[in-house]
Amino acid sequence: MFDTLLAGQPKRQAPLRILVADDQPLNIRILHEVFRNEFEVLMTTDSKQVVTICREQNPDLVLLDVVMPGLNGHQVCRQLRALPETRDIPVIFVTAKNTPEDEVLGLESGAVDFITKPINPATVMARVKTHLALKLQNDLLRSIALVDGLTGVANRRRFDEQFLTAWRRCQREQLELSLLLIDLDHFKLYNDHYGHPAGDRCLTRVAGILNETIRRPDDLLARYGGEEFICLLPNTAFEGAQGRAWAMLHAVQDQGLEHAHSPASAVVTISIGAVTMIPQAGDSPETLLNAADKQLYDAKQSGRNQVRG
Ligand code: GH3
Ligand code: MG
Ligand code: MG
Ligand code: MG
Predict the structure, then answer these.
(1) Beta-ladder partners of 267
(2) Choosing from 101, 161, 227, 239, which is the catalytic residue?
(3) C-alpha 179 – ligand 1 centre gap (Å)
(4) Are 300 and 182 in contact (CB under 8 A)?
(5) Could you say which DSSP state residue 243 is in?
(6) Is 227 among the residues known to form the active site?
(7) Four-CA torsion 250, 251, 253, 259, nearest 10 degrees
(8) Does 211 contact ligand 1 (Cβ within 6 A)?
(9) Whose CA is nearest to atom 19 of ligand 1?
(10) For 154, left (φ over 0), alpha (ψ -120 to 50), or beta?
(11) How far is 175 from 264, CA to CA, in rounded Å?
């Protein structure tokens, strides 16, 4: 199953990565020996480091000892399950505590499997491969579920998730959060003149052009619905957001996509509402979305093909 699944996947740049956490260096060495030829193996004897390593290095699976000083395995596992960045990483307990009660406790804290010490290398490898295969399948389904079927950029669901995460982070750290709401100008006339399939191709082209202007890994361009796109710019001041907006506007205009029935110009253009805020305790994410919508409306009222904010 594992090899079949891997064969059907787009090639991954890096080898699969697993994290082994156990307070006994000897146990780590044994597991390292089992996996080192097939996977990249990260290791730690400090249970307090597990969450940090997972956040920073994003392993595909964690093999976790239960009895460790400081935080025990169950506590670590619950912490991993509670964080959006780490909750999809499967955890397998590897432990000498092997009563049915221990096993139930382990599974209740969110582990996917339970292996008892002393380990049998072949069994451990087989189980790890099964869970890695499921993890890859899950990643693949998730990535499909978050992409817009027509344009290939992020969809509304992905935007909603990432917007909420960015909102919370900017609220916590009191950072500026910017949004650009982007709408194609006179697109109904485009469809009326060139037909709906050509309209679809145009939307896809514009999405690609907009996406090309994205510079930072935390920025996100998504299709917000119909012929509207939205761009999330965390930790970005208003001047920066305006700069990104004008770059997008010019990139689309300079492409010179024919729009013979545009009343204003002969090419496809966009209008953008740009807004920035440092989210405060009482604010809701809708406040920022509504403000962007209002600025977009102003851009349309002022003649289109412009940025308002
Ligand atoms: P404005 O400049 O005020 O935004 O004018 P507009 O014509 O773009 O605005 P309006 O909201 O009146 O029309 C939006 C059009 O976008 C109408 C709709 O058919 C078209 N549209 C929305 N989604 C799609 C799509 O997925 N494919 C195609 N081809 N057209 C779409
Ligand atoms: Mg131990
Ligand atoms: Mg619209
Ligand atoms: Mg429009």
Answers:
(1) 258
(2) 227
(3) 21
(4) no
(5) H
(6) yes
(7) -160
(8) no
(9) 188
(10) beta
(11) 38
Beta bridge partners, 223, equal 229
Q: Cβ-count burial of 153 within 10 angstroms (0-12 exposed, 13-18 middle, 19+ buried)? A: buried
| Structure token pair of residue 140 | 């693949």
Ion ligand 4 neighbours (CB, 5 A) are 183-184, 187
Place of tokens 């904010």: 309
Which structure tokens are listed for 124? 């451990």
Ligand 1 atom at shortest distance from the alpha carbon of 189: 7
Give nearest CA residue, ligand 1 atom 18.
188
Ligand 1 touching residue 300 (CB < 6 A):
yes
For the chain, 309 residues long, give each residue's pLDDT as a single digit of tens: 555 555 444 445 579 999 999 999 999 999 999 999 999 999 999 999 999 999 999 999 999 999 999 999 999 999 999 998 899 999 999 998 888 898 888 889 999 999 999 999 999 999 999 999 999 999 999 889 999 999 999 999 999 999 999 999 999 999 999 999 999 999 999 999 999 999 999 999 999 999 999 999 999 999 999 999 999 999 999 999 999 999 999 999 999 999 999 988 899 999 999 999 999 999 999 999 999 999 999 999 999 999 999
DSSP 8-state class, residue 267: B
Pocket test for ligand 1, best of 155, 156, 188 (most atoms within 8 A of CB): 188
